[in-house]
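So, does this match?
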Amino acid sequence: MLKKINPLSYHNLDWKTVFFILVIVAIFIRFPFFFRDYIDRDESTFIIMGQSWVNGHLPYTQLWDLKPPVTFLYFATIIKLFGKSFIAIRLFGSIMVAITALFTYGIATKITTKKVAFWCAVFCVFLQSLFGSLQGVMSEHISIVFFVTAIYLLFLKENWISFLGIGILFGLSAMSKLNMVYPIVVLGIYLLWEGYHQKQLAVRIKNLMSMGLGVAFVILLTLLPYYFQGQMQLYWQSIIEAPLAYSGGKFHSPLKTLPFIIVVLGLLVTGFTLKIIDWKDKKIQILTVLIVGILLSFVQAGKVNGHYLIQLYPFVLIPIGTAVAKLPAIRKKYRYFIALLLILVPMESYLEYGNIVSNKIKNGTFFNGEGIEVPAYIMDHNLETDNIFFTEYHIGYWVLNQEPPTKAATHPSNITREEMFPYMDNPRKTGMEELRYILEVTRPKVLVARKGKKIFDKKLVDYNAYIDNYLEEHYLLTATIGRGLVYQRLD
């Protein structure tokens, strides 16, 4: 197998070899983050939602978050099989990243050489794992592994059976991250148009109907548990209506996405104009359509977070790779410099390797972060855990076997997103009313915050002023663990 990794033998690469390399690269880059308490607040929320499902509560019934249920199913499955294990969650996340890169390689081989396809796949691992909070397992990681697999099937064979499988994969993707509906719809429109021009419209309609059945089958499977519990309205509100309300939130605007959209589309148009990307290639057209569909979803969301780009990378990397392959070859004297840059790309990983070794020497464990250390302090000092409120490091609920004080507090920032309250079946109508209820009615005995950071977005002056004054009057800061602040109630 290792002989096939020789740089002169790209043509000998097979799927097993490529997958082996991608898994090694993914685990190497992501391994030191297996021991971090939390990498992104969203991942912590997904873990808490998954645990609630394992405990017998369907998503949205006891706790609530904005994502569709397949995202929570991933975490619930890992927790059910392996218990409360950060390592298991992130190990399987690494394998998922490698699978996405593998099918990116498969798609690219249908368009360009194995050499270009291989490097597209390697950079797919890099870009899904570095630069920001991508070392955790995000809903985008889950949605894109299904979506890329579906596109590979589309490139492999077109008949009603394959389209049924594509539809099932598309359904799983959309039920992991709803914005993937946009590229699915745009792709469907393109395939209809292309079928019309090839005078195969009837066949294409039949195939697309088969794809639609696959999508509907997945949606039906996710709906049935709610039907049997008489919670269909909550299902509809949480999965369909709430995301639409979220995109219309006060901090979201389509205009904010325009610079990014212009840059991506500008690069594509430049490639087509210079003829270093072949617009006439049907497969390139499909990738372009998918890119446009994903970009439209960003416009609808009104912002472009770093982890959103996970869904874009596989489809952008392939045309970029084909374009770069047509440029003049790099001179030999520069190749060592390029190799050095590749070695330095995972700098975040090298730093984290140093961090976990340092933590092992200092604290006797590789596991680190306030989301682990603060709960350990709380348990060691016999503080109240049954009534606790994490405004930060809310993975601590999971570590302590506790739950957030209210449904809206599952993700701490949702407390201020009152536009979504009607869809989560929340009895309070405003964010301030929710916050007052948590502090004045549930009266947490312990409250955890973060040093040097406002509890809520700094633009939310009223929220921060209220909670800062309330903490000063009713709580005592009893410990600072790293950046974690532990407050105990005075009355």
Q: What stands out?
A: The longest helix spans residues 201-228. Strands lie at 388-390, 446-450, 475-481, 484-489.
